[in-house]
Design brief:
By secondary structure, the protein is mainly alpha-helical.
């Protein structure tokens, strides 16, 4: 469990995850993104599940600043999503889930996965047949179960 938020670290411990402390992880836009990515990739060398949490978009929302919210989301995409997707390719079959909105990446070495859609948006997801009614459905897809 990689997070700057003690509450989430505690929930992770109760869920059986080991907390990983990252120097410079703040919970804000100035967090150590690279350190979190490196910690996640390192944790995958020894285990098969990592929960990497970035609080910056939520904290930016609390300020009421649209500009800070956009900056936080763009920073998350640039400094977390891209480097993690690139970094996990060496592990073969992996699943990455970014839940809001969700991005599911799997089996990076073979390139297997959906080729439906060309953009990351709700319209493309709907056109590709993705309709999930709950977080539970999303998690079932993430762990490889079929949903009805």
């Amino acid at each position: 469990m990689i997070s700057a938020v003690d509450l989430l670290k505690g929930i992770g411990v109760y869920a059986g995850l080991d907390p990983v402390n990252v120097e410079g992880a703040t919970g804000y836009i100035d967090t150590n993104y690279d350190g979190k990515v490196q910690a996640a990739l390192s944790a995958l060398e020894h285990g098969n599940f990592v929960f990497l949490h970035v609080e910056a978009p939520d904290e930016a929302s609390h300020t009421g600043s649209l500009e800070k919210k956009i900056e936080a989301i763009e920073s998350f995409d640039r400094h977390i999503v891209g480097p993690v997707v690139d970094g996990v390719a060496k592990f073969g079959k992996v699943r990455i889930l970014d839940p809001v909105p969700f991005l599911l990446v799997e089996d990076l070495k073979s390139g297997a996965g959906s080729d439906k859609g060309s953009r990351y948006c709700e319209r493309e997801a709907h056109a590709a047949g993705w309709q999930l009614n709950s977080g539970e459905d999303l998690f079932r897809v993430f762990i490889g179960e079929k949903i009805s």
